[in-house]
Fold this sequence. Notes:
59% helix
Amino acid sequence: MAYLADIFRQSPEIALFLSLAAGYWIGQVHFGKFQLGGVAGSLLAAVLVSQVGVHIDNGIKAVLFALFIYAVGFESGPQFFRSLGRHAIREIVMAVVLAVSGLATVIVVAKLMDLDKGIAAGIAAGGLTQSAIIGTAGSAIEKLGLGADQTQLLQANVAVGYAVTYIFGTFGAIIVCVNILPRLMKRSIRDDALKAEAELLKGARIYGAGEAPALPELVGRVYRIDSAAGKSVSEVEALTTSGIITVERVKRDGKILGAEAGTTLNSGDLVLIVGHRSGVLGLERKLGPEVSGSEGMELVVTTRDIVVRNKEFAGHTVAQILEATTNLRHGIFMLAVTRSAKRLELANDTVINAGDVVTVHGVQEDLQRLAARVGPAIVPSDKTDFVFHGLGLAIGLLVGLAVVRLGSIPLTLGSGGGALMSGLVFGWYRSRKMTLGNLPTSASTLLRDLGLAGFVAVVGLQSGQQAVATIMQSGLPIFMAGVIVTILPLIITMLVGRYILHYENVAVFAGALTGSRSANPAFGEVLDKAGNSVPTTSFAITYALANVFLTLLGPLIVAFV
């Protein structure tokens, strides 16, 4: 033990990464249908490691959490701002219900167990994982007019109650939101997250790394001209009405010719046709036999996102643009249109606005020609725009320092709330200016996973030893009170959401429930189960409200206990 303690004293980061490794290994173990997951596993492992004795700086915890919550906000900014308004009423009710039920639970438990104001406030801060209650409750205790010794004792009891209950406050929220909620709804978070994502994508499929459709929408084929001899390139391209096709290359007598619209095709010519699969089917009867390929007929096609900047195209329907740009769009296939990260239905009457992102498919030369006229292409990159995101994090943390006083009660977003709001705003701005703020999916995933699991592990390393020691000495009743305060408000809010607010999508519901308790580790597990950012919008709304509502509980508990 002394040897390990000396190692952790010299290099506390070893304890951190050891907790992460052991935690994710523990999180993979199944207990029947129950599974801890990496975040809860890291917390448990960190508590065990902390018994050796580890001192780790608060700054590490703050940095890790800021990275996590900023990345979450950045991914969800466009959806969040679209969801504000009447659609957010359910989330507002969720946050109010949890705060009220949490206050009532703490007061009732304190009365039944004859707890003093300090212990009760500490249980609220730890059981509801809202550290700001420590500050607001401490300030309220100072104003009670008690003697200095009594005031100091009650304020110390706030810290004791918090230390004993905080670990289960984190762990219990994961159990309810990740394990109990899906059983109540009788559906999995993952299934409903995919369902919601499909609705946002208008039925389009997002393929993962290494995945590709067995029946691609766009295909290329080489034909030997027979029955189409004497026809021009433009006439061949007009042979089908079931899907657009283009002649990309012509080979005659071993030489590659330009595929100009007026080029006449001779018998025996080889032509490379690229187009929609529905348009290519049956072309053998109209052109001639299909051949496996020929040297020089290979062609590389690319899919690119292009931002619409030219006013010539803004404000017009898809049909109007297609009709006016016959030459420009030759060899270009429009796959999708998105606006503020929301996919639009690609129909003839869909109006294209400035700032919309059009996903197109074609050869590089055609795409460059299109981008020169329409707007800049968004070239995929594995580089992160650190100027953009560094500024975003700095602004968010500055906002988190601001304090607004409601009477004697200080209200603040804190570093987490500030980073979340900044991430939301910068994510929304990125959706409007797609050439700025690149953050590859892999980088965002690392920020979220390392940030949250690392934050939770630091909490376990800092508080685990004290919490276990206090429970072993005299804290078992306090610990059990914390269990009730953690579980009961979540269950009440979950039942209200299910049977009164009528949440149907488990992923969205789980995001709202974790946010209403400002339960960041539980939200991280929800995101992991969902596999996409669907739960984030509802979480962001309730999280912002919970930071205010739960902070106000400190003075109320001191007043009513």
